[in-house]
Amino acid sequence: MNILIVDDIHEILLQKLDKAGISYSYQPDFTREQAEEQIPNFDGLIIRSKFQVDKEFIDINPNLKMIGRAGAGMDNIDEAYAASKGIFLIPANEGNRDAVGEHMIGMLLSLMNNLNRGNREIREGQWNREENRGYELKGRTVALIGYGHNGQAMAKKLSGFDVNVIAYDKYKTGFSDQYATEVSMEEVVRRADVLSFHIPLTRETKGMVDDEYLFHFRKPIFFLMGARGGIVNVPAVIKKLDEGKIIAAAFDVLPVEKFPALGEQSWYQNLIERDNVLLSPHVAGWTFESYFKLSDVLADKIIAFLNQ
């Protein structure tokens, strides 16, 4: 196999491909147009998030056999169409699951203890001790939506906090383990104190978290979105913040990312003015360690695929 690599990846992937005798062309600065020109000369493609690998791109090379993504999820690839063409898809979900879990727990603890607001106020000369009294995580019920690699890593990391971890996964059954208990969605909406998402962006999940979805939760919740921004309707979350049904919300991902497009959204200003909202720039899964692990995992999977 001859593989075209069009995105920045850790050198460990190149080293492992070299050792396995797999031919590749590393072109991290390629534009989509350049990739379209070159892809007919290759059997495989490796990408992170540079562009959409859609039907039009896939059709350029009818002999494409493999697409690997040095990241979690395959939402920038038309999975169904690729599969219909017999293309083997290889994600590297295991590579950043620890990073995502740690980041989202960090955001949760910051929200529960008003760390972001307290830090800002002290820098502004305010010492508001009572106003920044926090909540303890111990004894609360954390509900995970999705129990794949990221959900499982989150559950494991929560195990030291003396919380009750429950999980709902529409596509899995019988997955209860020492870290989480499988429950129905009805139990999630009844029991959750914290709601955290660990599902991919698909046609089914796009816009899933809307006003109707959030309406059913019985208790005020802390809301964590570290999956994909397209899953959530931000105005619906803002509405529930206003109603007190969401105590605080953390977003590592948003439906629209990067400026100037983000700043042009009708909900953007409302969101950033809130002390009980914490934002980060889609960086939860992008640590120095995960940069290595994503490429390391992907290389092993590609080699295993070619050796089968």
From TrEMBL:
Any Pfam family the entry gives: 2-Hacid_dh_C
Gene Ontology MF terms: NAD binding; oxidoreductase activity, acting on the CH-OH group of donors, NAD or NADP as acceptor
Stretches assigned to the D-isomer specific 2-hydroxyacid dehydrogenase NAD-binding domain: 105-284
InterPro entries assigned: D-2-hydroxyacid_DH (IPR050857), D-isomer_2_OHA_DH_cat_dom (IPR006139), D-isomer_DH_CS (IPR029753), D-isomer_DH_NAD-bd (IPR006140), NAD(P)-bd_dom_sf (IPR036291)
Signal peptide feature range: none
Keywords of this entry: NAD, Oxidoreductase
Segments forming domain D-isomer specific 2-hydroxyacid dehydrogenase catalytic: 3-306
Superkingdom in the source lineage: Bacteria
PROSITE patterns in alphabetical order: D_2_HYDROXYACID_DH_2 (PS00670)
Similarity remark: Belongs to the D-isomer specific 2-hydroxyacid dehydrogenase family.
Protein name as annotated: 2-hydroxyacid dehydrogenase
